[in-house]
Amino acid sequence: KQEVTQIPAALSVPEGENLVLNCSFTDSAIYNLQWFRQDPGKGLTSLLLIQSSQREQTSGRLNASLDKSSGRSTLYIAASQPGDSATYLCAVRGSGSARQLTFGSGTQLTVLP
Amino acid sequence: NAGVTQTPKFRVLKTGQSMTLLCAQDMNHEYMYWYRQDPGMGLRLIHYSVGEGTTAKGEVPDGYNVSRLKKQNFLLGLESAAPSQTSVYFCASSPGTGGIGNQPQHFGDGTRLSIL
User: Fold this and answer.
1) How far is Cα A65 from Cα B57, in angstroms, rounded to an integer?
2) Least CA distance to A50: which residue of chain B?
3) Cα(B51)–Cα(B69) distance, rounded to whole angstroms?
4) Is pLDDT at A98 greater than 50 in this prediction?
5) How close does chain B come to A18, measured CA to CA in Å?
6) Tell me: the pLDDT tens digits for A38-56?
7) Three-state DSSP class for A25?
8) CA-based angle B48:B54:B59, to the nearest 5?
9) CA separation (Å) from A92 to A39, A97, B60, B90?
10) Are B91 and B108 in contact (CB under 8 A)?
């Protein structure tokens, strides 16, 4: 059974800092990996989706990398801003007949002004 | 530009009561999903649908039923609510192109359900 782990559970950084969020998964036979953002009391917003054949995806100040063989992904946030404060979740989609996303429990990020 | 709309936003039930959560999407998406999110845990898939008139079980389907009579709506039912079903429920949808899971899912804002 696929398990997705995100460490740390919470992170606090000063504004302007570059930071990295980590995601690890136990079964490397994935189809893709997604990073989501969740604001308090809100649903999830998809940030980046990396197919298994890709190494990274970029969107603005966000860069996500994927290393399937080691079962790891990172989300890099450049020049962090208070508006980046949220919970960030990663989710993997299994290959083959698996149709569901398996989510990590998230990293709660606070960017201090 | 509504996206995915969930109704109601909050609800308190007594054990044994029944209710239906409604999810509506206006993006003409083929696929729809129901998840639950519990403290300290990631989202877990309850049921999903790959098209109008179809449904399938996810990871934690027990105690729930679903229906997709119209493409834009996906209903989640609790026939006899239990305290273990206290959770935040999220609905999501995604396009059908490229196969299920290949497109980002769009989420509603959630329904916060408490079972006393």
Assistant:
1) 31
2) B102
3) 9
4) no
5) 25
6) 998 888 999 999 988 899 9
7) strand
8) 25
9) 20, 14, 17, 18
10) yes
